[in-house]
Amino acid sequence: MQILIAGESWVTHSTHIKGFDTFTTCSYEEGVGWLKGALERSGHAVQHMPNHLVSRDFPGTIDELRAYQLVILSDCGSNNLLLHPDTFVHSQATPNRLTAIGDYVQHGGALLMIGGYMSFQGIDGKARYRGTAVEMVLPAILQSSDDRVELPEGQRPQVVAPDHPILQGIIGEWPHFLGYNRFVARDGAEVLVRMGDDPFLAVTHVGRGRSAAFASDCGPHWGPPEYLGWAYHDRFWAQLVAWLTQGS
């Protein structure tokens, strides 16, 4: 199975102030390792495309997307997909990759969006997937503004559909999470796991394809060590991918 993960990377630029003097440091980090490792241990071939390469390299057409059985967007804002350098820098027309993703799912592809500060609507509403072709194929109706729910005290999601194939064999309480993106389940979607009254994991059929929305992170900070070391971590992601790509 060929899987594309877009996002899950960031650059930090820090200013250190020591009285009269200052200096700056920069660092590059990725949060994809836990998810990518779980999928690879399940036998999948995974390509990670970090955020700074998405605008240039993400597939622009449905035919290019068909090289993958599953596309995962995780902490990757919509501007990364909308603003190819040829458009943003050179004012040239380029394909709308949000539309391409929507068409890809409608025609048999699989899409998973994973939560984070630049997923769904995101921090300050800056991820901006509301009203796009990507939102139309997700099992989620997005808020119009910042959709983060911060849970510094930690909260455990509750399984509401334990017999669904994605959740089979996953026994006992889930680990706690430190936050998630709030959305409303779209008509026809199945909510499998909830966080309080909100969907935490929702899935749906879209045309000939399938999609899923996982409201929290696949790594820190919303995904704490208890989740990343959870006995069912790999099994959960493997079974979610198997359901999404069934028939691919």
Assign the structural class, choosing from mainly alpha, mainly beta, alpha/beta, alpha+beta, or little secondary structure: alpha/beta
CATH class descriptor name:
Alpha Beta
* Named CATH topology: Rossmann fold
The overall strand count is 14
What do these coordinates show?
By secondary structure, this protein is α/β, with parallel strands linked by helices. It has a single domain, classed as Class I glutamine amidotransferase (GATase) domain (Rossmann fold), CATH 3.40.50. The protein is built from nine helices and 14 strands. The strands form four sheets. An eight-stranded mixed sheet has the order 4-1-5-6-14-13-12-9, with helices on both faces. It has a two-stranded antiparallel ribbon with strand order 2-3. A hairpin with a 2-residue loop joins strand 12 and strand 13. Helix 1 crosses helix 9. It starts with a strand and ends with a helix. The model has no long low-confidence stretch (mean pLDDT 97).
